[in-house]
Amino acid sequence: MRELVILSGKGGTGKTSITAAFASFTNHMILCDADVDAADLHLLMAPDIQQKTDFQGGNVAVIIPDKCTSCGLCIELCRFDAVKDTFEIDPIDCEGCGVCYDLCPKKAIEFPIKTCGEWYISNTRFGPMVHARLGIAQENSGRLVALVRQEARKIVQKKNMDLILTDGPPGIGCPVIASMGQANAILIVSEPTVSGIHYLARVGQLAAHFKIPAMVCVNKYDLNLDQTQAIKNLAKEKNIFFAGQIPFDKTFTESMIQGKNIIETDETSQVSLAVKTIWKNVMTRPAMNIERLA
C-alpha cells in the first residue's frame, strides 16, 4: 500500500484540482479528502454516499436548570466567559475544559461529548472515496483527518488496492501533520508568488522534520517566471524534488464549473499534458515505490 498526500501550504493554489486530475491516471486506488475544515474534492467527484457516520470529539458543558442554585461559582471559574449571567453556557465560547463540571458543588452541570461533524464512505467514477465534513466552528479537525485516513487504509486492505490519493489540508498546523503520518511522500502545490515561496519553505521544513520525502510543482507558473525560478532554486536548496510546472489555463476553471477534472475536459491540452508529466515524475520517485504497512 502506498499513499501520496497533496498539500499546498496555503489555500487557492489548485491542490484539489490537481488531486482530481491525478485520479484520471490510475485505477485500483482510493481517494481521501483530508481537508475536513473546507472539504471540496466532492464537488469534482460527485460522490454517491454509501455510509454516513457522526464524528464525535470533545465535550461541551450544559447547566441543568432544575439543579442549579445560581451560586455563580461557574461564572467565576470560567476563563472563557462561556457562562452567561442567565446561567446558560454558550456552546461556541465553551472550550470544553471541564472546570465548571468538576467543581460545581451541586453537580448541576453535565458534560456530554459533542457531535462535531460527519464522515462518509462513497463511490465515485474513479473508485471509492473517504471524506468528511466538520461542523461550523467545531474543533478536533486533526482527529477527524486521522480518522478519515484510517478508514481509507481499511478499505485499501480490504479491497487489496495499491494507492491512496489524499487531498490534504492547507497550512502547516495540526490537520496537516495528521494528514502526513505514514505517507510515502507529499507533493506540495505552489504558486509563483512571494507567499507561495514562503509556504513552500514552511511545508518543506515540516516534511523534513517528519522525514517524509517532499516534491513540489508550480501551478500557473507562467504568471511570474521570476518567482517560478525562485521556487526551483529553493527546492534545490532544500532538497525538494521539482516535479514540474503547469501553465495558467482558464480550462481549469471551466472544468470545475462542469464538475470535471482537467483531464476529462481535454486530455490533450497543454495543461493536461503538464499535469500528466508531473504525475509520471511523482510516481516514478523511489519513495512512491515502497510498500508501507497500514
Short overview:
With about 290 residues, this protein is of the alpha/beta class.
Secondary structure tally, helices:
11
Q: What is the strand content?
A: 15-25%
Major beta sheet, strand line-up: 3-6-7-2-8-1-9-10-11
Q: What is the CATH T-level topology of the largest domain?
A: Rossmann fold
Number of separate strands? 11
Shape, principal axes of CA atoms: elongated
Number of domains: 2
Describe the main β-sheet briefly: 9 strands, mixed
Which CATH C-level class of the largest domain is it? Alpha Beta
Q: How does this model look, in words?
A:
This protein has two domains: about 1-55 and about 115-290, P-loop containing nucleotide triphosphate hydrolases (Rossmann fold), CATH 3.40.50; about 60-110, 2-Layer Sandwich (Alpha-Beta Plaits), CATH 3.30.70.20. The strands form two sheets. It has a nine-stranded mixed beta sheet with strand order 3-6-7-2-8-1-9-10-11, with helices on both faces. It has a two-stranded antiparallel ribbon with strand order 4-5. The protein has eleven helices and eleven strands. The termini are close together. The model has no long low-confidence stretch (mean pLDDT about 95). The radius of gyration is 22 Å and the shape is elongated. The chain is of the alpha/beta class and about 290 residues long. α7 packs parallel to α8. α7 links the parallel β9 and β10 (about 215-220). It has helices spanning about 15-20, 40-45, 75, 100-105, 140-160, 175-180, 195-210, 225-235, 250-255, 260-265, 270-285, and strands spanning about 1-5, 30-35, 50-60, 60-65, 110, 115-125, 125-135, 165, 185-190, 215-220, 240-245.
